[in-house]
Amino acid sequence: MFIVMRRAALAALAVLLGAAGFVTAPSDSGAAGAQSQDPPVMISVEGGGWGHGVGMSQYGALGRASSGASYSDILSFYYPGAQLTTVEDLQNIRVHIHSAGGTRVNPVDAPAGDPADDIEIVDRDNNLIFNSRNGNALTIDKVAGGFTIMRQSGGVTENVCLARTGVDLCQVDQLRLRYVQGNPVKVDAIDRVSIGSTGQSYQWGELRITERDNAPNSTLWVVVANLTLDQYMYGLAEVPASWPEATLQTQAVAGRTYGYDRARSRRASSAWDKPWDLYSTIDDQVYNGIAKEIGEYGPPWVSAVDTTSNQVLLLDGDPITTFYSSSNGGHTEDSGYVFVTSLPYLPAQKDTFDDYQNPFGSWRRDYTGDEIGRWIDREPSVPNVGSVTDVEITGNIGESGRVDRATVIVTGTNRTIEISGNTFRNVINAGVASEGGGLSRQILSTKYTATVVGAEDPVGGLDKANRRKANPRNIRVAGWVFDEDSANPVPVEIRVDNKVVATITTGETRFDIDTIFGQGQSRGFDTVVSANKKAHQVCAYADNVGTGEKMLLGCELVPRA
Question: pTM for the full model?
């Protein structure tokens, strides 16, 4: 599946084509001056898709819906064998919002501009602690044995735990904040200590604030609880709500099934002791509360949830695990290759719709050997290789071309190491992030190959350099060249008596070169340079991608006119 081309390969090709007069270009030397030291090696990583590639591709669902497929058709393709079924609602869905040192809860004005409604604060047993009126923001912190709830009122900070009786009513293990359904509250984390949401607003259910088991004196958990399955789905932010109806319906069923399966399995597990069923992040699915429901495209998403209300995918009566990702790069992967178990409804199969309007269908990332070596050195579990000079991928490549379990051989100036394709990706992405880089520099999936840019020398030749009969001071220079390290036109320098007189790029049609090498038709160059009527040596040099060298294509002695 993966080959790093070596310069020796082109040398062998030159032997085969020598009789036809084709040559591989030698390095610039001699009268042109000594070569400078080569710059760092460049590694090009090319791949497709964004995410693990198991199950549904969201861009694939977009493409299928745009071609006229229904949501049931789309689900049948990505989860073959599963049955679309309406189930009884799963009550009291609980979603983890964040873990933090404290949290700030601020009632939001009703949509019509009316004052925000009250927030009733009770303990686990529904004993009233305080009724917060007039939309005042509340700041809740964890303290030994309970909580503090501070409210700003008339320029005075008030501890509402003491407001009614003077007795601290917040020496409890849980606070429940009840708000009027449909009137949202905004929830911000203070000193967030783990991945989670902050600054989002919620209009369904209630907030439950609990001490964290592993840090009971300093931090707390914030959970949105008492949601119906569809109320949870209203806040799911996984695809743009402007996408076609069938795409939204497909995502609604896939997301609902995933949440339904996760919540049921965690509730049934003796090992699960957290006070929530689902995370609000990519640990499960992205849940943004009311932000998904409001705005221009809120109604289409809500409609998709309502249209498919309580519909999930079952196999033999049990919910399936509806893995999905943004894009699969044109081919889904078997769940057993990416995760642990091969499931019959998550096979590897070609997906011809994944590239529809998809900016992540294919991509390329370029890194210097110094960068990769530096990022590897950040990982304590991976030996320092020095500046990377070669990357090769071999063995155990998935059916889709993913390399999660393949071996990546990384050669550096210090040593050669072997790591998995998944580890290589994680090391690169962590390194990019540590230096402020974003998605445009990260490896978006494990469906990738790696190539040492500059490993190949240009291949080409100088066909002619002769005077024009109509004007002997004009010398026609023609030839061809390509560099397998790049599909771009190759810059060519024309030198007369070792002086650069012109710089051009390939672009002339050469069917003969394309027939032999399969490198495209526009690999020729043909230009005219001026010189006096004396004898001259005319040479052509090509740029060598990735090395900074100029490669000699050939020289011709042009006799005196």
Answer: 0.75
